[in-house]
Amino acid sequence: MKKESQQEDQHFKQCPSCGEVWQTQQNFLNDRNLNIIGYQVNFLRLELGYFLFNHNKCRTTLSLLANSFKNLYSGPVYKERKTQTADCPEYCLKESALDPCPAYCECAYVREIIQIIRNWHKQAS
């Protein structure tokens, strides 16, 4: 019995300010009141970095682990990090920089996930 109620309480994300709940990743990405505004990198474990979103409905900022969106990307993941080399445009060092990275860098796949989120076709409610 307890197991069922735990499953019912699981959801993709809840707004810490207004309490709005997005049951699935799809619901979250489709919400016209959400916009990606930044990325906080974790160079030791990229999947533990944070994507930052503005929730325009209540004017708060939400953070979600980059790993929450890893399933959206199926391209190459390079093994070597190019941070602080001539190839690096340093986007990961600038929280509000959302451009794709042209370097063949370990971090580039996260930048591609950002592009997928930015270009997500949001459906009408």
Helix percent reads: 10-25%
Helix segment count? 3
User: What is the typical, i.e. mean, pLDDT?
Assistant: 92
Order of helix and strand elements from N to C terminus: HEEHEEEH
Main sheet: strand order: 3-4-5
Number of strand segments: 5
Structurally, the number of domains stands at 1
Broad structural category:
alpha+beta
Shape label = elongated
Strand content: 15-25%
Compute the separation of the termini in Å: 34 Å
Q: What radius of gyration results from the CA coordinates?
A: 16 Å
Largest sheet: 3 strands, antiparallel
| Assembly state (oligomeric) | single chain
Account of the protein in words:
The chain is α+β, with helices and mostly antiparallel strands and 125 residues long. The protein has one domain (2-118). The protein has three helices and five strands, in the order αββαβββα. The chain has helices at residues 2-9, 25-30, 108-118; strands at 13-14, 21-22, 34-40, 50-55, 60-65. Strands 3-4-5 form a three-stranded antiparallel beta sheet. A two-stranded antiparallel sheet has the order 1-2. The longest helix has 11 residues, at 108-118.
